[in-house]
Design brief:
- The structure is a single chain.
- By secondary structure, the chain is an alpha+beta fold.
- It has a single domain, classed as Aminopeptidase (3-Layer(aba) Sandwich).
- Helices cover about 30% and strands about 35% of the residues.
- It contains four helices and seven strands, in the order βααβββαβαββ.
- The chain has helices at about 10-25, 35-40, 90-105, 120-125; strands spanning about 1-5, 45-50, 55-65, 75-80, 110-115, 130-140, 145-155.
- The chain has a seven-stranded mixed sheet with strand order 1-2-3-4-5-7-6.
- β4 (about 75-80), α3 (about 90-105) and β5 (about 110-115) form a beta-alpha-beta unit.
- It is globular, with a radius of gyration of 15 Å.
- The N and C termini lie far apart (about 35 Å).
Length: about 160
């Protein structure tokens, strides 16, 4: 398994994995964005997991806010392709994302996860995130309102 920076040519695989996540109900999104829109929303700290030459997962940060005071706060996305789930790919990606985020000056990482996605909640907790609350009826998907468990990780290196 190799964890490396995401490149533009990885987009078809990243998009397919994103579509897996949409089908499995891991996001409010109903279709993946274009490469340009995705890249603009995730301007730095973008990684893929590659196994046997194929991209099997990805992770990226989105800035929490454009305000300067929040420059070190990022929202985490981590997706693993259906065939690679349960093999440790998510943990490798998230651990590497944490390391890269600290190198880039991030002091707080946050993630919103549907309560029923217990695997993702446990993954984040295993990588140093803690549950800080539940945002009730945060968004609507297919006519159904959903809560989100909000998780946060504070760097022990940056912002102390």
């Amino acid at each position: 398994m190799i964890i490396r920076d995401l490149r533009a040519q990885d987009w078809p695989s990243v998009r397919a994995i994103y579509e897996d996540g949409i089908r499995s109900g891991a996001t409010f999104e109903t279709e993946p964005p274009s490469w340009e829109a995705w890249g603009a929303a995730h301007p730095e700290v973008r990684l893929v997991a590659e196994r046997d030459g194929a991209v099997v997962g990805w992770t990226a940060l989105s800035p929490y806010s454009p305000r300067h005071c929040y420059r070190g706060v990022g929202d985490v996305s981590v997706y693993v392709g259906e065939a690679a789930r349960g093999t440790g790919v998510g943990r490798l990606l998230l651990e590497e994302l944490v390391e890269h985020s600290e190198q880039a000056g991030y002091w707080t990482l946050s993630a919103g996860v549907f309560p029923e996605n217990e695997v993702s909640i446990r993954l984040h907790q295993a990588c140093g995130f803690r549950v800080i609350g539940i945002r009730e009826r945060l968004g609507e998907l297919g006519g159904v309102w959903h809560d989100a468990v909000w998780l946060e990780r504070r760097s022990q290196v940056v912002g102390r």
